[in-house]
Amino acid sequence: MKDIIADLNKAFDHRVRLGIMSILxxxxxxxxxxxxxxxxxxxxxxxxxxxxxxxxxxxxxKKQFVGKKPNTTYRVTELGKKAFAAHLDxxxxxxNIRP
Amino acid sequence: xxxxxxQHFETLQEIRSIMERSSRFISLSGLSGVSAGIFxxxxxxxASAYLGRWPFGQDDYYPFKLQELHRWGLTAWQFFxxxxxxxxxxxxxxxxxxxxxxxxxxxxxxxxxxxxRLLINLAIxxxxxxxxxxxxxxxxxxxxxxxxxxxxxxLALVHASKYTLNDIRYLGAAEIVLGLIATFFIGYGLLCxxxxxxxxxxGYGWYMYLKYERPASN
Lengths: 99, 218
What we know:
Chain A is α+β, with helices and mostly antiparallel strands.
């Protein structure tokens, strides 16, 4: 039991971070504003969670210009995919234990 | 412990919901299918009346008679242009209306990257089909117009089902089958067209409405 809880990844221990990872698993890329509308969070809140996931190297940033406007998009790394899958497995196992 | 269970369960459910919401346009309303189908049936009814033939009979030569037709003060070309425009605008307008309404009810955005992606992916096969059909008419192959419309529309739905409710994949497959049948039985073109764009839309739209939208009464 304790082992399974240890498998839960602390980096995903927040609603917004779970949301960011979920979105990036089914979308090749996502813009900052896309996260904002889907997750209904403020700029500052979102930026801090993105930074945290970036620090773990679970997501990566691509900055480019569309015309003259700067455009920041994000995508999930291989490491991030594996870590998130492991986290989901752990969650599932916890659910399967009879209380 | 049970509280933890519920919490993890809710987390998993939310992940699933976010994945769904972020990758597919789910505000597509079944009622837009129903209304598009009604417009299609009205259009097919007028076409059948204009051609002066019972819609369920087979007449392999009707495409060749179009040149001579002149009814209600309209040549065949004028009539079919008006008929097609009315059906197209009616179907599209009601689809936009019901889908916007559903999005508002659910508090979802109507114009977001998901909608744009859905529309672009619908537009590619549909525009190709439209130009192809113009080519058929240009060459006088009007008997193939209905089958081509069904096949291209079906392919568009199968293709676009990745970006919206997956159910429209099967509707698309059914349209393709009808189109292929109509390719070989040209005399049944109008009947297949009415079945595909009318009956299938109404039936499938109603099924999707019951599945996703009807206020849960039980």
